[in-house]
Amino acid sequence: MASTAPPASATRTVLTTEARLFAREPAALFWVMVSPTLLLVVLGLIPSFREPSADLAGRRVIDLYVPVAVLFALIMAGLNAMPPVLSGYRERGILRRMSATPVRPATLLTAQLVLHAAAALVSSLLVIAVGRTAFGVALPGNLPGHLLALLLAVAGALALGAAVCAVARTQKAATAVGTAVFFPTMFTAGVWVPVQAMPGTLRRIVEFTPFGAASRALDETARGGWPSLLALGVMALWAVVLTGTAIRRFRWE
């Protein structure tokens, strides 16, 4: 039986083409690559945010906002950038037409996931670098644990974006659904109030959401510890559930 997998050269071509198209979208580049670091810089310019706080056990607010800005980058890549692109391809019949070629629609979907994951990770590294050089925020004390938490957070963000693509049939619907989901995720990621500064009961509830758990895991590794099994388990469970939803509901046309 002949293989149905696309040639490796075709896969590379699709990935290269999608990367070029992404690079030509100034709005996507700004929101994914620039806005998280810009958010951190604006907050870091507030003098009180650079002062140790007794309420935070001697830590500074800006120290808490580096993981928040990292999660902001993931949210932008997963919810704001990817769903409209994939939904637009489906609405214009591009995915349907690709099904009749050696390059299957799944290749395009994989390319989009890889591209936005890479963009989110690069943006995250930029946030960490600027936090360190501009505001003296310590690098994560547990780099392996931090990387594990970051990769799970990326998986959850992209799975959420894929689920939005699956339930939204058109590009406009994907934008609307993504916007509706965007603000709750911003809250649970700690953009308005860091999760660590939330009241106890609210913090415990938020930590059972994908980005609340990610915030906890990134903060724990930033302080030199390993991410808690509960936080890792919540992140992994959400990634599996959202991925399963996307697989079951996604339609190529």
TrEMBL record:
GO annotation, biological process: response to antibiotic
InterPro entries given in the database record: ABC-2_transporter, ABC2_TM, ABC2_TM_bact-type, ABC_2_transport
Protein keywords: Antibiotic resistance, Cell membrane, Membrane, Transmembrane, Transmembrane helix, Transport
Stored Pfam families: ABC2_membrane
Membrane topology type: Multi-pass membrane protein
GO cellular component, one term: ATP-binding cassette (ABC) transporter complex
GO MF entries: ABC-type transporter activity
Location of the ABC transmembrane type-2 domain: 27-253
Subcellular location: Cell membrane; Membrane
Transmembrane segments annotated in the record for this chain: 28-49, 64-86, 107-135, 147-168, 175-195, 226-247
Taxonomy, superkingdom: Bacteria
Family: Belongs to the ABC-2 integral membrane protein family.
Protein name, as recorded: Transport permease protein
Organism field: Streptomyces termitum
Organism placement in taxonomy: Bacteria, Bacillati, Actinomycetota, Actinomycetes, Kitasatosporales
